[in-house]
Amino acid sequence: MASQEIEALVQALSRLPGLGPRSARRAVLHLLKRREVAMAPLLRALEAVNESLTTCSICGNVDTADPCAVCTDMRRDPRMLCVVEEVADLWALDRSRLFPGRFHVLGGRLSALEGIRPEDLAIDSLIRRIAEGGIDEVVLAMNATLEGQTTAHYIADRIAQYPVRLTQLAHGLPVGGELDYLDEGTLAQALRARRPIS
Amino acid sequence: MHIAAEAIICAVLAHGEHGAVVRVLTPEDGLQAGYVRGGRGRRMRPALMPGNIVQVDLRSRTDSQLAQMTVELVHSRAPLMSEALAVAAIDWATALTATVLPEALPYSRIHSGLEGLLAAIEAAPAARGWAVALVRYELLLLAELGFGLDLSACAATGVTEELRWVSPKSGGAVSATAGEPYAARLLRLPAFLVEGGEGNWPDILDGLRLTGYFLQRDLLVERRAVVLDARERLVERLKRIG
After folding, report:
1. Residues B35 and B107 in one domain
2. CATH class name, domain A62-196
3. Tell me, what's the ipTM?
4. pTM confidence score
């Protein structure tokens, strides 16, 4: 029978995404068996992040410095701004290294049922960034969901008065997607967004 | 309980990492909630969009238990996602339905009304074609839930012609003559709600003002009022057209 402290650790880990009680227990056993190699470095890393964790005041990214590493990266093109719903979306796009510009995290999306309004998101700060000038293109990288698109259309309206090129991620056929397995909605979007082949 | 039906998705809420609690409006069994295993996965997400028509199978041991729901997409409204007005209208209509309807009570007229409204939005995303249907749908909701407006005759004089106003107190129609001295305190009654047909933009906006007043007063109270923001954004968009 595990002690209270170990049980508390198992409970804490089991609340993490992707970990249930059983996998949390296995993770804890792994840490207990490898204290110096696994537990100690994990503890040090957690403490380091916990002490210096902050939200970037420019883009809303989570980092250990403010402004964050993305905003201070001089290799990035400050004239291009990609708007995302959550930090996880920023990390996904950043990981792909395909977008050369900077980012802005809204902290969610408009939701009628959950009562999430424009003032609950970082939309005003986005407008301020655009109003300051120096941005040529704003890419709306909202999720292809009803709420994501409602948010995108709302932001598009707010940005319309500024001299920026407003674009959106393409919707349609996913890479590896077989037509037979796709739903009607995705097929319709893909047909709508078809382009000449060169 | 076992329900198998073609239904309209009204609300999807994430539950845990992989699942979703989905509320659908069925023709015979009203609003039903169910847990969709894997509802947040790549395969199910395109089907679980509010406004979509799905074939659902709901099973639970008891009526009070949250049912297990399996879903198969019948018709997707995803192609409308690039139309700002259509998206705002679908968002509002489904959120309103999910918020005000009690679960498990049959509302076949509301199901037909919502189906008709969504079809109208799809057929004519440019708003003029479906804005009237939206006003009628909101009136239908009020009526079916016991807060219907009486637009058959003047509440003061009993006349059935020249009905121009609605009393914000009683929800009853008021004739042009009877209502003139109190015009500032009454709500305009657009002609299309009494005589039928399509309205012009000022009439449509009056209709939305009318239904919005009673929705806010009678149905969307306390915690339910959070959905009104979505309606405000939709009405602002419609005002820009009209």
Report:
1. no
2. alpha beta
3. 0.90
4. 0.90
